[in-house]
C-alpha cells in the first residue's frame, strides 16, 4: 500500500529530506514523490541527483509559505501524504537571526496546514480517507536534561530554550491543533540528532570531518560535555516510514538512537577514525579547540523511543560507531558534493562563528 502513496516532501533538498527521498524511492517504487524546496543556503539540488531520472520523482522550487502553490500541487498531483521537513534548522543561526525561524518554521508550517485543510477537508464534504500530514520535529522542544534525569517521552512537557526549538515547538502545537480542531489526519515525530550523508557542513559531524581534512581547528563549545543522542539519518527515515504505515492519527512518536555521546566523545571518535583513514604525522586530536559556549546551550538530550518500538516495531539498525565510520567514508568519497559548499557565504559564516577558519 505504501507503494501507491503520492507524497509531497517539503525540504527534500535538505539533509534529512534528501536522505528520505532516496530511502523512499529505493523501497517504494511506483507511487509519486514530489519535492517542494525553496533551496535556501541549506538546500542543495545536487543531493537529489540520484533521484532525477526516476519517473516517480518531480522537483518543484518554491516556498512552503506559498499556500496557493501548495494547494495547486496537492490537487494537481493527487497528493495523499505530506511529509514536512522544510525548516530553518541550525540553532546557532537562530541565535543571530531568529526571524527566519519564525517565518519558515511557524508561519510556513501553518501555511502548509491551511493548504492541506483546504484541499483534504473541503467544506461540507467528508474528509478524504487515507490522507496524512506528517510533521518532522526535534527532541529539542523538550528542553534540557540533568545527568540523571529520565529520557524524554512523548508526554514530557515542552520547554524549548533556543529560538530554533521554540519555533519547532510552536509548529508542533499548530499541527496538533489542526488535528483536534479540524480533524486533519496528522502525526508528529520528535527525533534526536541526526548524522549521515548530505549533511550541511555547519553541523558538528560534517564540520569536523571537513576541518580534519583541511587541518583546521575542530571547534567545541564550552567544556565539550554537552550530551546528545545520535541517530543515523536512515534510521530516522525508517521511523518515519513506520509512522506513515501504521502511526495513529493525532499521535506523536519519539525517534531515538540509544546512543548518548558528549560532543567531545563524538569529535574524539572522528579523530580516531581519521588517524586510521588519513594518517598524519601528529594525531588529529591536536586540532580540537574549545570555544566560548553557545548561549542557552542545553546540557543533555535523551530520547525514550519505547512507544514507537512497542507500537510499530521500530529499532535503529546501526551502532553509532558503524554509522560514523560509514559517514566519514561518504564524505571522503564525496568531495564533488561538498567542495562547492566550502566557499562564499558558508566560509564567511564559519569564520564569523568560530573565528579564524
Ligand atoms: P536542513 O537545514 O538540512 O534542510 C532544510 C531544507 O528546507 C533545505 O533544503 C531548505 O532549502 C528547505 N527550506 C527552508 N525554508 C524553506 C521554505 N520556506 N520553503 C521551502 N523549503 C524551505 O534541515 P535538516 O537537518 O534536514 O532537518 C529537516 C527537518 O528535520 C527539520 O524540520 C528539522 O527541524 C528536523 N530535525 C532535524 C534534526 C537534525 O539532527 N538535523 C533532528 C530532528 C529533527
UniProtKB/TrEMBL annotation:
Residues 8-327 form the NAD(P)-binding domain. It comes from the Bacteria. Its EC number is 4.2.1.46. The keyword NAD applies. SUPFAM superfamilies: NAD(P)-binding Rossmann-fold domains. GO terms for biological process: nucleotide-sugar metabolic process. Keywords: Lyase, NAD. It catalyses: dTDP-alpha-D-glucose = dTDP-4-dehydro-6-deoxy-alpha-D-glucose + H2O. This is dTDP-glucose 4,6-dehydratase. It comes from Acidihalobacter yilgarnensis.
Amino acid at each position: 500500500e505504501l507503494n501507491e502513496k503520492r507524497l509531497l516532501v517539503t525540504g527534500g533538498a535538505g539533509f534529512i529530506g534528501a536522505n528520505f527521498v532516496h530511502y523512499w524511492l529505493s523501497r517504494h517504487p511506483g507511487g509519486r514523490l514530489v519535492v517542494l524546496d525553496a533551496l535556501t543556503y541549506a538546500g542543495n539540488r545536487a543531493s537529489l541527483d540520484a533521484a532525477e531520472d526516476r519517473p516517480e520523482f518531480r522537483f518543484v522550487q518554491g516556498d512552503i509559505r506559498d499556500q496557493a502553490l501548495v494547494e495547486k500541487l496537492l490537487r494537481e498531483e493527487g497528493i495523499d501524504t505530506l511529509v514536512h521537513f522544510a525548516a530553518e534548522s541550525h540553532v546557532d543561526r537562530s541565535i543571530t537571526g531568529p526571524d527566519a525561524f519564525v517565518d519558515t518554521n511557524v508561519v510556513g508550517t501553518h501555511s502548509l496546514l491551511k493548504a492541506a485543510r483546504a484541499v483534504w477537508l473541503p467544506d461540507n464534504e467528508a474528509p478524504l480517507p487515507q490522507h496524512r500530514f506528517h510533521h518532522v520535529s526535534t527532541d529539542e522542544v523538550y528542553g534540557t536534561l540533568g545527568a540523571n534525569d529520565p529520557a524524554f517521552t512523548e508526554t514530557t512537557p515542552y520547554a524549548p530554550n533556543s529560538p530554533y526549538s521554540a519555533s519547532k515547538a510552536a509548529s508542533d502545537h499548530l499541527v496538533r491543533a489542526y488535528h483536534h480542531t479540524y480533524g486533519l489526519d496528522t502525526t508528529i515525530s520528535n527525533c534526536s540528532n541526526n548524522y549521515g550523508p548530505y549533511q550541511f557542513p555547519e553541523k558538528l559531524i560534517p564540520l569536523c570531518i571537513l576541518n580534519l581534512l583541511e587541518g583546521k581547528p575542530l571547534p567545541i563549545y564550552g567544556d565539550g560535555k554537552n550530551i546528545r543522542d545520535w541517530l543515523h539519518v536512515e534510521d530516522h527515515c525508517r521511523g518515519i516510514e513506520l509512522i506513515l504505515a501504521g502511526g495513529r492519527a493525532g499521535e506523536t512518536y519519539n525517534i531515538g538512537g540509544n546512543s548518548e555521546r558528549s560532543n567531545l566523545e563524538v569529535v574524539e571518535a572522528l579523530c580516531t577514525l581519521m588517524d586510521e583513514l588519513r594518517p598524519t604525522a601528529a594525531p588529529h586530536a591536536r586540532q580540537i579547540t574549545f570555544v566560548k559556549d553557545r548561549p542557552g546551550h542545553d546540557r543533555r538530550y535523551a530520547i525514550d523511543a519505547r512507544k514507537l518500538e512497542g507500537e510499530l516495531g521500530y529499532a535503529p539498525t546501526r551502532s553509532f560507531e558503524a554509522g560514523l565510520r560509514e559517514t566519514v567514508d561518504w564524505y571522503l568519497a564525496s568531495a564533488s558534493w561538498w567542495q562547492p559548499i566550502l566557499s562564499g557565504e558558508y566560509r564567511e559564516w564559519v569564520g564569523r562563528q568560530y573565528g579564524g577558519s
